[in-house]
Amino acid sequence: MAHHHHEINHKNLGVTVILNVLITLGELIGGLISGSMALITDAAHNFSDVLALVISYLANRLAKRQATTRHTYGFGRSEIIAAFANSVTLIVIALFIIYEATERIISPVEINSDWVIYLAGGSILLNGLSVLLISQDAEKNMNMRSAYLHLFSDMMTSVGVLIGGLVMKFFHWYYVDALFSIAIALYLLYLSWAIFRDSLRILMQFAPKNIDVEDICQEIAALDGIVNIHHVHCWQLDDHKRLFDAHIDLASDICLSEFEKKLATIKEILAGHGITQVNIQPEFGVEDSKELIHHHK
After folding, report:
1. Same domain assignment for residues 126 and 255
2. Rounded to two decimals, what is the model's pTM?
3. What is the mean pLDDT of residues 271-277?
4. How far apart are CA 164 and CA 229, in angstroms?
5. Kind of pairing between the strands at 242-250 and 226-236
6. Cβ atoms of residues 150 and 52 within 8 Å
7. In whole angstroms, what is the distance from residue 197 CA to residue 190 CA?
8. 91 near 190, Cβ under 8 Å?
9. Are 35 and 110 a contacting pair, CB within 8 Å?
10. Which of 84, 91, 99, 208 has a CA-to-CA distance to 200 between 20 and 30 Å?
C-alpha cells in the first residue's frame, strides 16, 4: 500500500510556537530574578522547542515540493534532516544542563522558590496544551514526532522544576534545584536517543530496522526461473517510503512480457514487507559479481 505525505495542521503548529515563545520569555525572566538554574535551563529547552517547531514547519513545507531533473527524489528527506537536527539539539542541551547543574551542586545559592513554583506551573499547563495540539501529527510523521518529544519532555521538565520549587519553599534545600535539573537532563537523553538513532539510520541509507534483506532475497530467489539475486540495496527515503533495487539472474533468455510477470510477483513479495518503490535489473549470461551485497571499490 502506498504511503502518502502527511499534511500537518499548520494552525495548531502556529499556536504551539506562540505558546512556547511565551513560556521561554517567562521562565528566562523568572529564572534571572529568582536565581533558579532549573528555570533558566527549562527556558533554554523551551527555546529549543520553538526552533524545533519552526524547523518542522519549514521541513514539512519543503518536503511537499515536486521532484525535478536536478532533485530527482524531491525534498522528502528534509523532514528526516530536521528530525536528526532536533534530536541532536536536545542531546546537547541535556549535556549542558548536567554540566551546569553539577557546578551548582558544588556551590549552591539561595533561590526565590515562589517564582519557580508559579512559572513551572504555568509552563506545565501551556506545554500540556502544546502536546495535545500536535499529538495527531506526531503519530504519522517522524519530524513532528521529534518536535512532540521536545514538548513532552519539557512538560516533564517543568513538573520536576515545580516539585523542586515546593521542596525549596518548605525545606530550604536549594541544591534540589540542581539535582532535579540533572535527573531531567538524563530523561531528555533517553527520550531523544530513539529519534536520533532512527533518523541517522535513514540518513546513512541503512536497511529499515524491521526488514530482513536476506529473507526477502531468499523468497525472490526461490521463484521459478530465477537463478540468483545480487547487488541488492534496500533503504528508506523518508519516514514512510522504502526502496529496493537488485540485479536478477534469469535461467533462460525470456522475452520482456514474461519478465514483467515475474516482476509483478517480485513486487507483491516486496509490498508484503512495506516496500513500495522497486527497481529490478534482469540479467542473462552476464559475468559480474554474484554477491548479495556488492562491495564497491
Report:
1. no
2. 0.75
3. 92
4. 61
5. antiparallel
6. yes
7. 11
8. no
9. yes
10. 99
Residue whose C-alpha cell is 529473507: 215
One domain for residues 176 and 95: yes
Task: Using the structure block, give the residue that is written with the C-alpha cell 525470456.
Answer: 254
CATH number of the domain to which 150 belongs = 1.20.1510.10
Number of domains in the chain: 2
Taking 60 as the threshold, does the pLDDT of residue 88 lie above it?
A: yes
Residue 235 DSSP symbol: E
Domain encompassing residue 94:
10-203
Q: Residue 253's domain is classified under what CATH number?
A: 3.30.70.1350
State phi, psi for 281 to the nearest 5 degrees. Answer: -105, 110
Which residue has cell 517480485? 266
Q: How many CB atoms lie within 10 A of CB 67?
A: 11
DSSP for 4-41, written as a single string = PPP---HHHHHHHHHHHHHHHHHHHHHHHHHT-HHHHH
As a residue count, the chain comes to 297
